[in-house]
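Entry:
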Amino acid sequence: MTDSASTPAVEAAGPAQNALQRLGQVLMVVGAWPGRISSWLILPIIICVLVAVIGGILRLSQLATWDQSILLFGDQLSIIGLTELQWHLLSVMVMLGGAYALEQDRHVRVDMLYAKVSPKWRATIDTIGDLLFLLPFCAIVAWLSIRFVDMSIRSNEQSDYGGLIDRYLVKSFVPIGLGLLFLTGFGRVLRNLGFLISRHSPTSGANSATN
């Protein structure tokens, strides 16, 4: 991992100076926005962990019951259901947070040369990597995961241990999260292409001369 993680993503491609860069930046912000919001899920996760630990110490199996079945919980909340809720929330945070990490350029890098090259080459490396790997991966896995969600809906999948029901709700965040990651990656491609075009354009003046 390089030290580029400490630099905002926009610095690699410079400020948005043309329409392509601005469009790319807008797509990145839109794709990353749900991930930014989902970071607050860490608070209910912490609460769930604390309640589950205390409930385990007190040897409680069922925390609450009610008359009508509600989405995800059914007609009760047990310690098992609370434990499952923890990884449900964590899964949502991870799947939505991927796009936010990409937009902020906080994802892990293993390219040791990336931090040593110029912004132009960084944008080139990012663009090639996004087009060859990131975007195809997101598109293929998101498409395949739709059937994964559909099977969960058709089978009425739920916990085998008396926990949460409606398992399709958490599984639906696989295509949603990958779709947002695709949108953010596509926005980064547009932003970087706009940067490269502006730097190589004869009309870019001083910007071209600096290269």
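Helices lie at 9-13, 19-38, 42-57, 79-103, 119-154, 168-171, 173-200, 206-210.
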